Amino acid sequence: MHELGLVEAVLAIRVGRLDPRDYAAALHVRARLLDPSLRAFTVLAEPSAPADGPLGGIPVAVKDIVATRDLPTANGSPIYRDHVPEADAWVVARLRDLGASVLGKTVTTEFAWRHPGPTHNPWRLGHTPGGSSSGSAAAVAAGLAPLALGSQTFGSVIRPAAFCGVVGLKPSYGAIPRTGVHPLARSLDHVGLFTRSVADAGLALAMLAGASDADPHGQPLPPFRINPEQGVEPHAAPRLALVRIGPWDQAEPAALACLEAAAERFRAAGARVEGLTLPAPFAGAAEAARTILACEASATYAPLVAGHPDKVSAPLQDLVREGAPIPAVRYISARQLQTELRAGFGAALADFDALLTLPAPGPAPEGLAFTGDPSFCVPFTYLGVPCITLPAGNVQGLPLGIQLVAAYRNDLRLLRIARWCESVLGRPHLFPAL
């Protein structure tokens, strides 16, 4: 049962081929069996009777910065070790309303920043799964859940999804309300999704996109529905802009070869894939994103650092110190540029349907002390535009991926393009031998 994706499980339960109690029990057993070595979860819930709804019987893994009223939400910090929120986060409440259950809380880096947790990459336990949504990516890759919630402020959905060989979707900024999600930098924070196929990601986003008065940031998506029986309708052979963004000279040969091989396969299948250089102002996106992150994180966490200096990691203390002296005019300029570039990104892609690039400089690095370089994700998180990563290859047993990006609030279009690309690349059915 662990090999079923979200859509496959929903359909099997709907037609009676799969008993939701058996399904939930099987995933709980698998999680309890494998998690001592994988360490994707901070806590596992007890199985409960399946609820009614379109996601009835589906266990979902929830990142541990997302509030749950019946399980501890520790935010990756000893300060909150036993903290049980009074209410669910908006997205958890929506999942429960749809009939889903919470399988457990997944490991995050401390407050979704740099200090890593204990999670291992399921493909090679001595390597990082990425961060900060480390546990969520690993749980889906290992077949412990068909859907997991994550978050991205710099590269915390796209990068771990690529490292773990699953589909990672960072929707447009504001697409899924963040009410009840512990903030790192509110002008950059996104709720994201981990699944095993584009159809799974599309179904989840269609059901979870919404608006909350308590989270006024961003704009709701144009509503759309995904019929599980039909999935995401593939786009016609797309026009893809191959963009070399971020520290391209630091990309590893295997990652570059994987990207070029994918581009060649897309061309052979009828797509137009051409190089594109974004206009000069986009080169300032990464530095401006860092300014916003440091300022907003410093404002949020300075009191915590002052009150608990012995319980806060060095990376978070450094971030607070970095943000404190930044002048207001520099922060305001970074926010203004963010608005301008987000609005102008569609025009920059006017001759293309989506952008194609790397999600990370290479496969998952060895060791657990470093979760990987987010540089290839940061500009698009800063813009708030939708991004998705697809498994596209491997090197020495470690997954490699590609990243697709579309204009702001063009999430359905991105999903359709990604579905076409997935059909060309193939959907991996392998699971790590844990």
The profile of the biggest β sheet is: 11 strands, mixed
CATH topology of the largest domain: Amidase signature (AS) enzymes
Q: Report the helical percentage.
A: 25-40%
Corresponding CATH superfamily of the largest domain = Amidase signature (AS) domain
- By CATH, the architecture of the largest domain is named Alpha-Beta Complex
How many domains, in number, for the residues? 2
CATH class of the largest domain: Alpha Beta
Q: Which shape, going by the Cα principal axes?
A: globular
Please write the string of helix (H) and strand (E) elements. Answer: HHEEHEHEHEEHEHEHHHEHEEH
Which strands sit side by side, in order, in the main sheet?
1-3-2-4-6-5-10-11-9-7-8
Radius of gyration: 20 Å
Strand coverage percent: 5-15%
Which residues form runs of ≥5 with pLDDT under 50? none
Overall pLDDT level? 97
Number of helices: 12
Q: What is the straight-line distance between the termini?
A: 16 Å
Structural class from helices and strands? alpha/beta
The count of strands amounts to: 11
